[in-house]
């Protein structure tokens, strides 16, 4: 369509066009649109509304939100390279992956040995609890500096790149100390790697903690006993470690 008047175009056609463009819009119309009639159209034909561009507010996601969206959609491990190996169950904290005591025993008895090169069981209980009875092979790391020194100062790397290194955290009930330590490791791991690479992309929580594991699988514990955090003979130890963890 021509933007300027052509010498061959009658002025009677130009004027209606200009008049229509300048006509005020209806104030009660929620979306104002400009209408235009083609100069080739006859006066009796209907006019077509021009499409109106809509401006939408852009939404930005932080790194944690992106990670959660990806993980929720495909259930991938922390570096998004593959799916979680162990079957997980619902737990107290929805952002963490929980396994049952039965699944823990499956790992301990080598049922995943063809896929797992190293399984680190992190017992986050206080030393007097650990000494009173713990899962065989578990390492006692009750403080953040302990777990950072053990896992991140010299990360555990599989000799066979096709196999995995997994870390399973627990405390007495796996309600507070275990989940808190799991999040701490992931945070520190992210900080020392270029996203999304991680030293330990596959982290789990033992659901129910040692309190639920011990009655079912005492033979996988040493000594075969269970010392609760609030044991009457260790009140001073509890007070001391709580002061340290603040």
UniProtKB/TrEMBL annotation:
Single annotated GO MF: protein tyrosine phosphatase activity
Enzyme Commission number: 3.1.3.48
One of the GO BP terms on file: positive regulation of G2/MI transition of meiotic cell cycle
Regions of compositional bias (Basic and acidic residues) in chain numbering: 22-31
Enzyme class: hydrolase
GO cellular component terms, A-Z: cytoplasm; nucleus
Region (Disordered), start-end ranges: 22-45
Catalytic reactions of this protein: O-phospho-L-tyrosyl-[protein] + H2O = L-tyrosyl-[protein] + phosphate
Keyword Coiled coil annotated: no
Classification via Pfam families: M-inducer_phosp (PF06617), Rhodanese (PF00581)
Gene3D superfamilies (UniProt xref): Rhodanese-like domain
Domain of life: Eukaryota
Domain Rhodanese, chain residue ranges per copy: 115-222
Keyword line: Cell cycle, Cell division, Hydrolase, Mitosis, Protein phosphatase
PANTHER family: M-PHASE INDUCER PHOSPHATASE 2, M-PHASE INDUCER PHOSPHATASE DUAL SPECIFICITY PHOSPHATASE CDC25
The family this protein is said to belong to: Belongs to the MPI phosphatase family.
Function, as annotated: Tyrosine protein phosphatase which functions as a dosage-dependent inducer of mitotic progression.
Protein's name in the database: M-phase inducer phosphatase
Organism of origin: Chunga burmeisteri (Black-legged seriema)
The encoding gene: Cdc25b
């Amino acid at each position: 369509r021509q933007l300027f008047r052509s010498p061959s175009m009658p002025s009677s056609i130009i004027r209606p066009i200009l008049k229509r463009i300048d006509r005020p819009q209806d104030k009660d119309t929620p979306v104002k649109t400009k209408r235009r009639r083609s100069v080739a159209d006859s006066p009796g034909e209907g006019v077509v509304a021009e499409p109106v561009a809509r401006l939408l507010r852009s939404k930005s996601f932080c790194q944690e939100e992106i990670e959660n969206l990806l993980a929720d959609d495909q259930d991938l491990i922390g570096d998004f390279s593959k799916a979680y190996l162990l079957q997980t169950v619902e737990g107290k904290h929805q952002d963490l992956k929980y396994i049952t005591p039965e699944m823990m025993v499956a790992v301990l008895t080598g049922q995943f040995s063809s896929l797992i090169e190293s399984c680190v069981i992190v017992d986050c209980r206080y030393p007097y609890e650990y000494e009173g009875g713990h899962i065989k092979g578990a390492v006692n790391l009750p403080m953040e500096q302990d777990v950072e020194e053990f896992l991140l100062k010299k990360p555990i790397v599989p000799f066979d790149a096709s196999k995995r290194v997994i870390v399973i955290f627990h405390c007495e009930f796996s309600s507070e100390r275990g989940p808190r330590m799991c999040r701490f490791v992931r945070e520190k791991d992210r900080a020392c790697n270029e996203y999304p690479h991680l030293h330990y992309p596959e982290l789990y929580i033992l659901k129910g903690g040692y309190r639920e594991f011990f009655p079912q699988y005492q033979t996988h514990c040493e000594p075969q006993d269970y010392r609760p955090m609030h044991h009457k003979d260790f009140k001073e130890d509890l007070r001391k470690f709580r002061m340290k963890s603040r």
